[in-house]
Each structure stands twice: as structure tokens, then as C-alpha cells.
């Protein structure tokens, strides 16, 4: 099937509209030439659109632009895209769309922008993404989405943003994440989600944010975690059994709980915001556990290797010196640090009495 290119008008409106598409016979495989600055709701309910290439000049994809375009399966953005806004319902119900790479200049993904895109398996973000907001219900019902890496400049994940993403197994946050709020029911009914590591700048987890996530068994809070509140039923119906946090994080969380007359949390079993019997484990305990596992291996790993892994996972250095340096070993001159060896060449020499002795020369 041939592609069809639609040039920008020599003068006048540079917003691509339904009329522009229909005047060219509604081609199913479409290239928009450089110069168009906006895509209006040109393709709402367009059952015959299959593919489109969007030029770098487009700044905005407006409300309903591709909503219910049920056969659209490929959207490509030209390199150097200046797109800044994907507005409300822009791709809602585009049930054949399988993947999309969001250009780096996009600042906001609007309300329900990719809702019910049931074939959407892959959402990626161009390196250097400036995305700040993932609005309410942005990906609700994207039932084929399996993983997503949230760009570091995102500050808000809105209410129900990833609700009912039943195949979502992995949510990660780019290093240096500025995320501040996870909204109401943001990941509710993400029934395949297993673990999540909460970035340090987050200060609010709202009602039911992780409700009805039966596979979610473990959460780790990054060191120096900042927050103002976790709402009382944030983890209702989750499978949460283990929670990893440092002592300072627990202290700050308890200070917030005291202000709202909630009982304090402690290391061990707790009712954790709607989920009973959650075992809160300190990050230092994680490192000690790794050493215990190491000691039971048939070929033990050196202590300093175990500690380095622990530090990478938790951001903490163990307090016990033997866990950092390893035990001292005896050698020439008393004790020496583990892992430092001197090579030597030894040769026998004859004395006047015919006896041999060793002379050591050090390299």
C-alpha cells in the first residue's frame, strides 16, 4: 500500500484538520510534510488510518486527535520533534497501537491520552525527556503494557494513571527522579506488578495508589526518602509482605503519623496503610542477610564484594568494620590487610659450611 504525503498550505492555517485529510482522499498511510504545527481532531473515529509520520514542526496533538482510530498501529515522529503537548484523549481507544516513542520535548501527557489502548505494549521516552506530568487516567486500561521507565523530570503521576494495566510487571524510575506525588489509584489493579523502588523525592502517596495489586510483594524506599504523607489505604488489597527502608525514613514517617494520631510503625510486622502483616526491614538488615546467605554458599563470596552489592542496592555502608574490610589475616610483620600480597622470589645459596639458606628479594 502506497504512502501519501500532504504538504502544508503555502499560506493560512497550519493546523492539520479532518478537512485536510478528506480533501486528499483519506489515505491510510500518511506523511505530513514539515510546516504543520498542530494536529487537530482530524482522525477521531478514523477506522481506515493505519500509519502516520508526524513532522518535527508539530507542537501540539490536540484533544481527541486520534481517539477511536481503531486500526492505527504505528505513529512515528521525525527526528528533532518539537512536540510539547499530547492533550486529553489524544489516542484514547486506538486499540491497534502497539508502541510509541514520546519525543523529548513533550512536557505533559494529558487526561486519558492513551486510555484503553489495549494493544499498547511498549512506551518509551526519548533520551533527555522533559516530561513533567502524566495526567489522570493517562494509560488506564492499557492492558498489554508490560513495563515502563518513568523519566526523571516527571513530578506527578496522576489519579488512575496506570490503573487496570493488568500486564504491567515492571515500573522503574530514571536515576535522579524528581517524582513528588503518586495520585489516587495510580497503579490500582495493576495485577501483575511485583516490586517497585520508590524514588527519594516522592512526598505523597495518595488513596489506593497501589490497591488491588496482589502480586506486589516488596517495596523499597530509596535512602533519604522525603515525604509528607501516605494515605491510609494506599496499599489496600496489595500482596505486600516486605518493605525495605532506612531508620531515618521510618522516623520521618512516624513523625507524620503522630501528627495525625496514627500508631507508630516499627521494624517487624505492621499494618501498613491498608495492608496487614507487612514486615518492615531496615536496609542494614538487608546487608546482614546477604552475608548470612553468602556464608551458606558452597563457594563463599568475599565480604567486600557482598558489601559493595549491598551498598549499590541500599545506598548504605555497613557499620561493622569486619563487614566492610573483611577479617585481618596474619602474615609477615603481624597482620596485613586482606587481599594484599607481596610477590617474592626465593633462591637457595650455599654458605661456607655447605649449608643452604634462603634469601628473599622483594619485587
List key phrases describing it.
5 helices, Leucine-rich repeat, LRR (right-handed beta-alpha superhelix)
Structure at a glance:
With 363 residues, the chain is of the alpha/beta class. The chain has helices at 18-23, 247-259, 283-295, 303-314, 321-325, and strands spanning 4-6, 15-16, 29-32, 38-39, 51-54, 60-61, 74-77, 85-86, 99-102, 108-109, 122-125, 133-134, 147-150, 156-157, 170-173, 181-182, 195-198, 204-205, 218-221, 229-230, 242-245, 268-272, 275-282, 329-331, 334-336, 344-350, 356-362. The strands form seven sheets. The chain has a ten-stranded parallel β-sheet with strand order 2-4-6-8-10-12-14-16-18-20. The protein has a five-stranded mixed β-sheet with strand order 17-19-21-23-22.
Describe this structure in words.
- With 363 residues, the chain is of the alpha/beta class.
- It has a domain at 81-284: Alpha-Beta Horseshoe (Leucine-rich repeat, LRR (right-handed beta-alpha superhelix)), CATH 3.80.10.10.
- It has helices at 18-23, 247-259, 283-295, 303-314, 321-325, and strands spanning 4-6, 15-16, 29-32, 38-39, 51-54, 60-61, 74-77, 85-86, 99-102, 108-109, 122-125, 133-134, 147-150, 156-157, 170-173, 181-182, 195-198, 204-205, 218-221, 229-230, 242-245, 268-272, 275-282, 329-331, 334-336, 344-350, 356-362.
- The strands form 7 sheets. The chain has a 10-stranded parallel beta sheet with strand order 2-4-6-8-10-12-14-16-18-20.
- Strand 24 (329-331) and strand 25 (334-336) form a beta hairpin.
Amino acid at each position: 500500500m502506497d504512502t501519501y504525503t500532504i504538504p502544508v498550505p503555502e499560506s493560512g492555517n497550519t493546523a492539520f484538520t479532518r478537512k485536510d485529510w478528506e480533501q486528499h482522499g483519506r489515505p491510510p498511510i500518511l506523511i505530513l510534510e514539515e510546516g504543520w504545527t498542530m494536529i487537530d481532531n482530524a482522525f477521531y473515529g478514523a477506522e481506515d488510518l493505519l500509519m502516520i509520520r508526524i513532522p518535527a514542526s508539530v507542537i501540539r496533538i490536540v484533544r481527541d486527535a486520534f481517539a477511536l482510530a481503531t486500526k492505527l498501529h504505528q505513529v512515528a515522529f521525525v527526528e528533532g520533534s518539537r512536540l510539547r503537548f499530547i492533550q486529553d484523549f489524544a489516542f484514547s481507544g486506538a486499540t491497534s497501537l502497539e508502541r510509541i516513542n514520546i519525543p523529548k520535548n513533550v512536557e505533559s501527557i494529558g487526561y486519558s491520552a492513551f486510555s484503553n489502548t489495549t494493544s499498547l505494549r511498549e512506551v518509551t521516552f526519548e533520551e533527555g525527556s522533559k516530561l513533567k506530568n502524566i495526567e489522570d487516567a493517562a494509560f488506564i486500561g492499557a492492558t498489554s503494557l508490560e513495563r515502563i521507565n518513568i523519566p526523571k523530570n516527571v513530578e506527578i503521576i496522576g489519579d488512575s494513571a496506570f490503573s487496570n494495566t493488568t500486564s504491567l510487571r515492571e515500573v522503574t524510575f530514571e536515576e535522579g527522579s524528581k517524582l513528588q506525588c503518586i495520585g489516587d489509584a495510580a497503579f490500582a489493579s495493576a495485577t501483575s506488578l511485583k516490586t517497585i523502588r520508590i524514588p527519594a523525592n516522592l512526598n505523597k502517596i495518595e488513596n489506593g495508589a497501589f490497591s488491588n495489586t496482589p502480586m506486589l510483594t516488596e517495596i523499597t524506599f530509596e535512602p533519604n526518602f522525603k515525604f509528607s504523607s501516605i494515605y491510609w489505604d494506599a496499599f489496600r488489597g496489595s500482596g505486600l509482605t516486605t518493605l525495605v527502608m532506612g531508620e531515618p525514613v521510618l522516623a520521618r514517617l512516624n513523625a507524620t503519623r503522630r501528627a495525625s494520631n496514627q500508631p507508630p510503625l516499627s521494624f517487624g510486622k505492621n499494618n501498613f496503610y491498608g495492608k496487614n502483616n507487612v514486615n518492615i526491614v531496615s536496609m542494614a538488615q538487608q546487608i546482614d542477610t546477604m552475608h548470612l546467605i553468602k556464608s551458606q554458599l558452597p563457594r563463599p563470596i568475599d565480604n567486600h564484594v557482598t558489601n559493595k552489592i549491598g551498598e549499590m542496592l541500599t545506598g548504605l555502608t555497613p557499620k561493622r568494620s569486619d563487614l566492610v574490610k573483611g577479617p585481618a589475616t596474619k602474615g609477615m610483620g603481624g597482620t596485613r590487610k586482606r587481599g594484599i600480597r607481596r610477590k617474592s622470589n626465593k633462591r637457595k645459596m650455599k654458605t661456607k659450611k655447605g649449608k643452604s639458606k634462603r634469601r628473599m628479594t622483594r619485587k
